[in-house]
Amino acid sequence: MPKIKEFTPTQSMKLVQSMFKNKVKLKQENFKPGTILFYNYNAKDKTQTYDRTPLVLILKRNRTHTMAINLHWAPTPLRVVLVKKIIQVNKKNIQLNKPLEFDYNQLRPFLKKVGFAPIIRLYINKRISNKGVIIPSSEMMTAARLKTETFTNGRVSAEELYRKALNNNKKYRKTRKRRQ
Predict the structure, then answer these.
(1) Comparing 72 with 117, which gets the higher pLDDT?
(2) Is residue 147 within 8 Å of 51, Cβ to Cβ?
(3) For residue 65, pLDDT beyond 50
(4) In the 8-state DSSP scheme, what is residue 99?
(5) Which among 7, 34, 57, 124 is placed 20 to 30 Å from 141, CA to CA?
(6) Helix (H, G, I), strand (E, B) or coil at 154
(7) What integer pLDDT is reported at residue 112 of this predicted model?
């Protein structure tokens, strides 16, 4: 697999600082499926490793929870695969600067096949900061390549957390073994 160009932490920080100049008050309509958001999160269980600044692709939202893919929990090459798929499906909308057409039920088999199932996260709505950055669809690939994760409980890489998520997800392990 060819090496994906990643941003260095310094480059990522500069880009994030410029993004946070566009920080907005997040509203219910900002959490529609297919939106990529960057915000602060205050987890309920502080004993578990979590990302204080998730970069998420919204899958579903209800009154109390938001289901999303936290791109920080995936290695960069895997993030790029997902973003390419979204761009492929939404090429026309992205060119016209329209919202993405996104259906989680249609994308679910692809997510499972590619290996995103174990990094789908459920966030408590009350613990999501009320301000954040809405990543425009035209900047999805840039966002996917950023090194902006702030994991708690020590220095942990996205690669380590992804492996841990795979190992902790028994259902995914079974399907992965069958495919090998």
Answers:
(1) 72
(2) no
(3) yes
(4) P
(5) 124
(6) coil
(7) 80
Question: Distance from first CA to last CA of the chain, Å, rounded?
Answer: 18
Q: Give the pLDDT confidence score for residue 175 in this predicted structure.
A: 47
Quote the CA–CA distance of 137 and 96 in Å, as a whole number: 10
Phi, psi of 59 (to 5 degrees): -105, -50
Token pair, residue 48, equals 């578990």
pLDDT band of residue 170 (cuts 50, 70, 90) is: low
Give the E-state strand segments of the chain in sequence order. Answer: 24-25, 36-41, 55-61, 65-70, 120-124, 128-135
Reported as a pLDDT band with limits 50, 70 and 90, residue 61 is very high
Please give the pLDDT value at position 2. 44
Say if CB 26 and CB 132 are below 8 A apart: yes
The b-or-e profile of 36-55 (16+ CB within 10 A means b, else e) is bbbbebeeeeeeeebbebbb
Q: Do 119 and 165 form a contact (C-beta atoms < 8 A)?
A: yes
Amino acid identity, residue 143? A
Answer whether 112's CB lies under 8 Å from 172's CB.
yes
Q: Which whole number is the average pLDDT over 97-110?
A: 78
Q: Which of 19, 47, 48, 14 is nearest to 121 (CA)?
A: 48
pLDDT at 180 over 50: no
Quote the distance between the C-alpha of residue 43 and its chain's center.
Answer: 16
Facing residues of 124 across strands? 65
